[in-house]
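Blackboard transcription, Thursday session:
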Amino acid sequence: MKPVCIRNISRAPAAIVDAFAHHNVATVHEAMGRIGLMKPYMRPVWPGAHIAGSAVTVLAQPGDNWMLHVAVEQCQTGDVLVVACTADCTDGMFGDLLATSLMARGVRGLVIDAGCRDVRDLQAMGFPVWSRAISAKGTVKATLGSVNIPVVCAGALVNPGDVVIADDDGVAVCPRSDAEAVLAAARTREANEVAKRKRLAAGELGLDIYNMRETLAKAGLVYRDYSNKS
Amino acid sequence: MKPVCIRNISRAPAAIVDAFAHHNVATVHEAMGRIGLMKPYMRPVWPGAHIAGSAVTVLAQPGDNWMLHVAVEQCQTGDVLVVACTADCTDGMFGDLLATSLMARGVRGLVIDAGCRDVRDLQAMGFPVWSRAISAKGTVKATLGSVNIPVVCAGALVNPGDVVIADDDGVAVCPRSDAEAVLAAARTREANEVAKRKRLAAGELGLDIYNMRETLAKAGLVYRDYSNKS
Amino acid sequence: MKPVCIRNISRAPAAIVDAFAHHNVATVHEAMGRIGLMKPYMRPVWPGAHIAGSAVTVLAQPGDNWMLHVAVEQCQTGDVLVVACTADCTDGMFGDLLATSLMARGVRGLVIDAGCRDVRDLQAMGFPVWSRAISAKGTVKATLGSVNIPVVCAGALVNPGDVVIADDDGVAVCPRSDAEAVLAAARTREANEVAKRKRLAAGELGLDIYNMRETLAKAGLVYRDYSNKS
Amino acid sequence: MKPVCIRNISRAPAAIVDAFAHHNVATVHEAMGRIGLMKPYMRPVWPGAHIAGSAVTVLAQPGDNWMLHVAVEQCQTGDVLVVACTADCTDGMFGDLLATSLMARGVRGLVIDAGCRDVRDLQAMGFPVWSRAISAKGTVKATLGSVNIPVVCAGALVNPGDVVIADDDGVAVCPRSDAEAVLAAARTREANEVAKRKRLAAGELGLDIYNMRETLAKAGLVYRDYSNKS
Amino acid sequence: MKPVCIRNISRAPAAIVDAFAHHNVATVHEAMGRIGLMKPYMRPVWPGAHIAGSAVTVLAQPGDNWMLHVAVEQCQTGDVLVVACTADCTDGMFGDLLATSLMARGVRGLVIDAGCRDVRDLQAMGFPVWSRAISAKGTVKATLGSVNIPVVCAGALVNPGDVVIADDDGVAVCPRSDAEAVLAAARTREANEVAKRKRLAAGELGLDIYNMRETLAKAGLVYRDYSNKS
Amino acid sequence: MKPVCIRNISRAPAAIVDAFAHHNVATVHEAMGRIGLMKPYMRPVWPGAHIAGSAVTVLAQPGDNWMLHVAVEQCQTGDVLVVACTADCTDGMFGDLLATSLMARGVRGLVIDAGCRDVRDLQAMGFPVWSRAISAKGTVKATLGSVNIPVVCAGALVNPGDVVIADDDGVAVCPRSDAEAVLAAARTREANEVAKRKRLAAGELGLDIYNMRETLAKAGLVYRDYSNKS
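(Written on the board underneath:)
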């Protein structure tokens, strides 16, 4: 693999990308057929953010944030920067200076399979980050990686231009070509849940709403009363 | 083991269960003789909740939340749902819909040795959850487990009807038959601590309050002044 | 190793120690030459605190907080208590009573390579703690350790009297003899960053500010336009 | 909980206990209905051993092996010593001296949810140990625990007198009262597997032996030929 | 994502695939430009095996090995079965029966991002497995996944037909289209290393062989003699 | 910290260093007063080696093995190379080429708080390594570190010239100045254990040999006979 920086990637239409931010990560993941999630070790460095954007991807060497500077130039309004490393790393590869630079370009957030620092400043700035660790450990700028190639970030394949959705539950990735269909499925799903939520709040049981009683019995579930010997 | 759902479990008297919520997890654990804690990986998904309730227990297959729906029907006001899995799992086996259903039945919270999702909604709803992970990963409803059998949850044995206490420090479990005695011991302990806290705040040393100086000397502790060569 | 408690340790001048609190952990770590950090598993038990102080050190047995009581007496205003264990431990070796005692002596915070409990009370009291875990697990007072000997805490060597800086990014340790020089370097570094932050906020790229383009090209980075086959 | 040492526990008949050693852990676990396993972090400190025995249980304080000495006296020929701790611990709480003592009493092996040391000597002596860690870290003898009470060891509930089976796959626990029935089920299962193994070795497919094709189709599995665009 | 089983995948020429087995994982990884490795938690369940083969891929639900049975039918001589899960899992999803079936089809080994059981039998049979865990935990056959779609296994992207190389150092994946070029690069690299190994064995220093002295000096390395004050 | 390579370090007398190899890590650790151990995650990459030697230390950047080449030149017969990293790292920073070079200089082994590769070759060569991981991940040679400064390796402070002892139980470090005294204590301890081992093998109980019965009773241990209700 030769180090490369790919320019002018394709993105999904802004209207579609933006609409994903109305759906949470769990819904999008279900709408995709229960796939596309990053591992749960990816956590927001501050709570409450909910974003959707187009992925600009970085494959970096662990402990080396040189390529993040290269990637900034490839970002535009509405993007989310996604950083993968060639080996597990918790170093603080991102902080308030890079965040300042990304905000100046309209980037909506960062997803990094490594550490992040300056977390208090990031919260004050309102720049959301999902990372595997919080660490003040500084990095070098010594070895090349690549920008906008397909990467595996926290267990998920991310192609440049894919839609990235992130909230307090974690991070999901939707392939660019599936974005429209997944969005539609997410909408249907959410509408469906509103109705269910009302019935459950009124005290109806999931057992009845989902018609589970017969299937449970067929599968062999037995009901028995408690006794002190049980 | 045949899958089973036990109905009509015994619970400790409500007055006793409710009184536990005035004591924190650390106090209850000490009052029990320094046992009965779940592992510290069990963390609240949002901070600040403090509950006590009667355990309704679930043994679920990892990644399968079918039995949670079965368990909801067995819950009543004042209960805490406790979910163990047959193998380690971080999937998001619980979210806002199940929480809506449990709240409709007066359940006080959930303790789950797996993942939880919709954490922001749960905080907005005021439904507290202690879990080993936060994950948007969806689950299936395919394989039976059991409800209200003894389970091992995060390293602690939980029998149905045991008192579960949870706060920002973690989760403790008090056997139903010991509840009254443990509650009394917790009260004594807390009263005792109030006095100590005052003395410590006034600058008295634990060394003196607990009469440690002689024991330390007997055990061989030597005091020496600092020198640059030390 | 005989158990020992060293009295009257040397500390850096108060003016220098206090000045460190104006610089964050990441800055101090960089100013030291990218060393001196504790591992990132050391996290604040409540967010927002930022302290600097002189280290009083403890080497404790895992699950035994006897020596913490010994150490309290050696603390004075402006100190930070640093607790290392002879083996990995997550037990709640510290809680609100010890915090009350430390606050009465003017101690600024605790750094403990073990667990901490009563976290909600600690936040209410405004006493900051950095720990590897939150756990209600109680401890014994049975076996001696030492106070104010050099310890390894979360991967960092801490000598008594070293300056400890802690914020939401983690914990750094600056040797007492280097404190003045590191502080000066931190100041220079921070001044330098203010200027950079402005340029980045105005849309200038790190690539240009740091003159990276030539070095990247020399290292072999190739730019290429995106194609669907790439 | 008052510290206690229970004497003269009940055990399953020797013929039944011994017969378990002809079945591996996976088989016994399946015969029990896919339960009763300790967590997979419990690993043999040397490979190749396969034992079954009656559990003598210990609840110890982390880093304190005092109660192991108490437990030795309660052991008899055919037993397996099972050690749980009140908090996670990797210290080397067991070594060649205790092994010598246990071998002198006819104990078949040790299962310890903590660390073990002298692993090379243990292999030379032929004394098998399953532990969560290998560590030379020494322990104290300072705080009481209990012997022959129910314990949770590596996530599994173990009552004194239960049958413990351990091999290179891990450790399983069969309640004493279920031992005979589980043994019978294990035998049936194994006989059944011999036949299947022959058919599979001859090239028959599991898809056909287990009649999966129809169920897979009904569940919605689609077969498609590979194309470069897939 | 609809569950699918892709038949008749393309593979690299047998001569090329087979030749990879003469090179170890580290060499292949370097020849690819230091990429293509699975995470180091993937370990052989028994030591000493070294294989190369064409990937048949499975995306399975955690704790559910149904799709492995589907995949067996798609395997042919010279293949390596690669199993990814939709969430982290350590259950024993593979054992001696499936190994018997795979051996009957000429499959060279298994790479599974989950647990494996019957490890002693597998060693006796000579069937090599790389897994993230050893666990006797049994699995269900209840939920569909897919066969021969691109999967992320232990952090590496694997497309069906890619070349998988595995030895005691871990597992590498070489894209099918790059196989010939990578093989050539591996050969060159290995030849180069033979010469270096001789020079190093003769006492020549890497500092001189790689001409590092000047670069080190330029980077600022200072040599100094030891003093007791250093 | 300026990068530096310290030459001509002091070592303990060869006769003393060599004598340590007759004592295992657990014994040395106990003889030092139960300190000086590296964390138990440090494991031999192949079993059965037992070495003692003088530490040559390296502080390296994670994923960068440049300084190992610098360190080789500082090694002499009887040394053990000890490598620490400035941040957690599992990359394969050491392999058969560096081992060849170290063997040519008479180095007895490597202790590295990072990954190691070529483990099969290392076993064939008889060069022992203790590491935190096995990984084929290659490294760069881009950023300076230091040689023969004090380092923290796997939680233990190592000064250049300290005695390093390693066996299947782990790694211990004895300060150079304490080497003679610790060696004497280890000898005494071992002699003492021989006698105990004989008595234990003859069936005497530790309870009696160590006179524990009275202390246990005083501490409150109660003996009770088993009943089915206990």
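Lecturer's comment: The interface with chain C takes residues 1-2, 32-35, 37, 39, 59, 86-88, 150, 152, 155-157 of chain F (CB under 8 Å).
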